[in-house]
């Protein structure tokens, strides 16, 4: 199987052809700055700041006595720069608009959640092509 074959399975590749027989879908491209933030593993992952101040997990139980689930290590004597989560106002507005247009309830569909998730499509159930 070739890389092009696997790439054809991405939703933005097949949806235009099958949208008449598929559920209504909006495709949002992530800003490059956010993709880089997701790829950066130098610190804790912080959820983006919402422009509408909405809690990303409104149903969670808040326990004020719980400690933070991560610790920021101090630099080498220098004052450590406080971590600031990203802000993606344009993307947030587009997504909110899409949710409203779709009736207020959605489920996200990603290209692949992880590379291993796409292995099922390979005839040999691996990501690397075997020599012939």
Automatic annotation (TrEMBL):
Its cellular-component GO annotations read: cytoplasm
A Pfam family per the record: D123
Region labeled Disordered — which residues?
55-87
Q: Which InterPro entries match?
A: CDC123 (IPR009772)
Q: Which family does it belong to?
A: Belongs to the CDC123 family.
According to UniProt, the name of this protein is Cell division cycle protein 123 homolog
From what organism does this protein derive? Gossypium tomentosum (Hawaiian cotton)
């Amino acid at each position: 199987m070739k890389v092009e074959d696997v790439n054809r399975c991405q939703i933005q590749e097949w949806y235009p052809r099958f949208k008449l027989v598929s559920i209504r879908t909006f495709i949002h491209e992530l800003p490059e700055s956010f993709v880089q933030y997701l790829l950066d593993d130098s610190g804790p992952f912080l959820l983006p700041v919402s422009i509408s101040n909405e809690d990303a997990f409104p149903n969670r139980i808040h326990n004020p006595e719980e400690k933070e689930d991560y610790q920021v290590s101090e630099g080498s004597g220098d004052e450590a720069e406080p971590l600031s989560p990203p802000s993606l106002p344009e993307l947030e507005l587009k997504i909110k608009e899409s949710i409203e247009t779709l009736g207020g309830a959605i489920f996200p569909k990603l290209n692949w959640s992880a590379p291993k998730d796409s292995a099922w499509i390979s005839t040999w159930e691996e990501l690397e092509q075997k020599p012939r």
